[in-house]
Amino acid sequence: MSSGLAANKLFSPLKIGRYTLKHRVVLAPLTRVRSPEHIPDQKVVDYYAQRASDGGLLISEATHISVMSGNYDNVPGVYTPEQIRAWKKVTDAVHDKGGVIFCQLWHVGRTTAPSCLGGRTPLGPSSNRVEEGMVYFTRGGPVPYVQAQEMTEQDINDTIEDYIHAAKTAIAAGFDGVEVHSANGYLLDQFICDNINKRTDKYGGSVENRARLMLEVVDAVVAAIGADKVGIRFSPFGFFQGTGTSDILGHYGYAIGEVEKRGLAYIHLVEPRSDLLNNDDAKLQKLKEIAKAQGKNEEDLLSLKPFREIAKTTPMISCGSFDASNAAPPVEEGITDAVAFGRYFISNPDLPERLAKGYPLAGYNRDTFYAHGREGYTDYPTYDGAKL
Q1: What's the whole-number mean pLDDT along residues 267-278?
Q2: pLDDT digits (tens, 9 = 90+) for 174-206
Q3: Whole-number Å distance between alpha carbons of 153 and 216
Q4: What is the CATH number of the domain that holds 24?
Q5: Predicted confidence (pLDDT) at residue 138 exceeds the cutoff of 80
Q6: Which residues form the signal peptide (predicted)?
Q7: What does the pLDDT read at residue 283?
Q8: How far is CA 110 from the centre of its chain?
Q9: Is 1 among the domain residues?
Q10: Cα 94 from chain centre
Q11: What are the CA-CA distances from residue 9 to residues 14, 24, 210 (Å)?
Q12: How far, in Å, CA of 15 to CA of 25, rounded?
């Protein structure tokens, strides 16, 4: 057993927006598909309550802002009275333990199926589809992605209104703030990526145009609930669901630079290594090719450091394959301000305490990440509980 990280900067206070965290170990947003008919139930309450800690930040699973935002099976929403009442039980349970919780607002764009949308065609920046061969797993089994319908300006305006409504209802449900999901190949990320966004209007073409929707959403949500209650997430190095913009540093650098001007509570970035796990040579080679074509250092395309230099005043959260061995240095070195954990927070509900005291981390069971019951969800014990 190690001596623990309690004396490390990872366990020092951090101000995000209007809140002062007591430590910098964050629960990453994790889709868990445990909300029947899109409404969190008691096991969802228990799950978040187990992972709450005094002064700790939890970011909710990605949460739909409307039916047209995706409506994935057993994924929660935050736009109806029933959902507000259900989430209020979750946020009350987190607050009872002194925790802070933000709701991640989610629109998946082209990456859903008509069966999830009542037969409607998914919306996207352009009329294209996720690459051939990829499928979406619905309640009825796997189905291929379909060609998206290019959003009209009215569709875009309606979507912005959906974000505003969801942000307000999240606050009504007791959330301390919201995180705008602009990562992982979902709608706002699709608009930023020039390999997906082929529009010729004010939302396409230049990076300024392609980032326009993301910034309009951010501005609208800020106007609705305040900048000190708003965070945003990006995954510059991800290739998930067909993303692959031609200038990672330039395009995401512009987006992050514009967000930096808005004084948000935080900027949440996914580390490049989370998308290069398991020696994924194809993805690594693609990054190297991009670097060579642009005459840039390969290391700049495998690090968040360039974005840290852009986002100098907004607190930064980093996420991606962190554990007890590598979480502390990035915070100590100022590369990031906080570290978000996914898989190890699933299997260690008392993760902050384990890291602080040097307790060993329990392993996780991938087979239960997207199951529907309590197994692999609320049945992981705390370190003290495991010893009983």
Answers
A1: 71
A2: 999 999 999 999 999 999 999 999 999 999 999
A3: 13
A4: 3.20.20.70
A5: no
A6: none
A7: 60
A8: 17
A9: no
A10: 19
A11: 10, 8, 37
A12: 13
Reduced to 3 states (helix: H, G, I; strand: E, B; else coil), residue 48 is helix
Residue recorded with tokens 């039916």: 67
Closest CA to 128 of 154, 100, 109: 109
Whether 186 is a known active-site residue: answer: yes
Confirm if 56 and 26 have CB atoms less than 8 A apart.
yes
- Given a contact cutoff of 8 angstroms between Cβ atoms, the answer to whether 340 and 318 are in contact is yes
Catalytic one of 72, 79, 186, 377: 186
CA 172 to mean position of chain CA atoms: 21
The pLDDT of 266-285, averaged and rounded, is 69
* Total domains present in the chain: 1
**pLDDT at residue 284, as a whole number:** 67
pLDDT digits (tens, 9 = 90+) for 37-46: 999 999 999 9
218 half-sphere exposure, CB direction, 13 A CA radius:
27
CA distances for 120 relative to 2, 114, 123, 131, 158, angstroms: 54, 5, 9, 20, 16
pLDDT tens digit string along 92-104?
Answer: 999 999 999 999 9
Q: Is 76 among the domain residues?
A: yes
What is the per-residue pLDDT for 282?
Answer: 64
Six token digits for residue 366: 């991938």
State residue 298's pLDDT score: 66
CA 357 and chain centroid, separation: 28
Q: Is 130 domain-assigned?
A: yes
